[in-house]
């Protein structure tokens, strides 16, 4: 094992390789959210690794969003991932690279704790902010109330670069952001982007990892990433 790790590190010096017990492969993404919420009071977010594993408790998209709120780690068996799964993972990794400076250097705001209902964290760094929101499948039906953001300039205008939607800082601070999350069965796209989706602003339903389209998932998980910049 040490020889293998030495060869991997020599061939890929920019990649961090770690080995550990296989318990990480069974990590439930919802449990990771709760653990990070507690440990985040002691350690900075970039030191708390969130793992994307082969745990069947959530679709690949849900696993990525729950892990991207910290240092993103890949713990799944990539040799067994399908071509579409690898392509989707590549898109999520590119998005993580884009928001990584916010997670590493930005101010963290815990908007809603992961207590069984909708949870959300926000990072603010300079004139950019990102909100990562999740709603577990066990959450009751209905549309959660808007999430009031923090740390924004109330006089500024914020732009979602993927959709072109414009938000006033004062509105996001006092009225809140409609994440598009919805509990129970059924599907709801991001109300902010009108269902356009995209890589930077996406609130989608479904488990593409299981081969289902975004409108056919029956698990009921919801997850969203919303990126804003001062326009």
**Cα-atom radius of gyration:** 17 Å
User: What is the CATH level 1 assignment?
Assistant: Mainly Beta
Q: Encode the helix/strand succession as letters.
A: HHEHEHEEEEEHEE
- Under CATH, the topology can be stated as Immunoglobulin-like
> Helix/strand/pairing class, anyone?
alpha+beta
Secondary structure: helix percent = 25-40%
**Alpha-carbon distance between the two ends:** 50 Å
What is the architecture at the second tier of CATH? Sandwich
Describe the main β-sheet briefly: 7 strands, antiparallel
How many DSSP-defined strands?
9
Q: How many discrete domains?
A: 1
Present the secondary structure layout.
Blueprint lengths: L1 H10 L17 H11 L9 E4 L7 H8 L3 E4 L8 H23 L1 E6 L6 E7 L2 E8 L21 E3 L6 E3 H6 L27 E4 L16 E9 L1
Parallel strand pairs: 1-2
Antiparallel strand pairs: 3-4, 4-5, 5-9, 6-7, 6-9, 8-9
Protein described:
α2 (29-39) runs parallel beside α3 (60-67) and α3 (60-67) runs parallel beside α4. The protein is globular and about 55 Å long. The protein has helices spanning 2-11, 29-39, 60-67, 83-105, 169-174; strands at residues 49-52, 71-74, 107-112, 119-125, 128-135, 157-159, 166-168, 202-205, 222-230. β4 (119-125) and β5 form a beta hairpin. Strands 3, 4, 5, 6, 7, 8 and 9 form a 7-stranded antiparallel β-sheet that branches. Strands 1-2 form a two-stranded parallel sheet. The chain is α+β, with helices and mostly antiparallel strands and 231 residues long. It is built from 5 helices and 9 strands. The chain has one domain: Immunoglobulin-like (Sandwich). Mean pLDDT is 75; it is low at 184-221. It starts with a helix and ends with a strand.
């Amino acid at each position: 094992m040490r020889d293998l790790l030495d060869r991997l590190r020599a061939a890929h010096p920019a990649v961090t390789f770690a080995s550990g017990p296989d318990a990480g492969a069974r990590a439930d993404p919802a449990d990771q959210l709760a653990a990070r919420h507690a440990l985040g009071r002691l350690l900075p977010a970039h030191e708390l690794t969130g793992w994307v594993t082969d745990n069947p408790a959530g679709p690949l998209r849900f696993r990525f969003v729950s892990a991207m709120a910290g240092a993103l780690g890949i713990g799944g068996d990539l040799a067994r991932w399908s071509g579409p799964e690898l392509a989707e993972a590549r898109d999520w990794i590119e998005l993580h690279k884009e928001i990584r400076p916010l997670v590493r250097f930005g101010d963290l705001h815990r908007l809603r704790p992961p207590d069984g209902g909708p949870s959300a964290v926000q990072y603010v760094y300079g004139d950019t902010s990102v909100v990562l929101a999740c709603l577990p499948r066990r959450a009751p039906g209905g549309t959660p109330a808007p999430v009031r953001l923090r740390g924004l300039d109330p006089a500024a205008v914020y732009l979602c670069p993927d959709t072109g939607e414009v938000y006033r800082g004062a509105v996001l601070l006092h009225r809140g952001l409609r994440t598009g999350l919805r509990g129970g069965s059924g599907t709801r796209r991001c109300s902010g982007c009108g269902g356009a989706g995209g890589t930077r602003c996406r609130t989608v339903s479904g488990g593409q990892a299981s081969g289902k389209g975004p409108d056919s998932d029956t698990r009921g998980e919801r997850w969203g990433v919303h990126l804003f910049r001062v326009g």
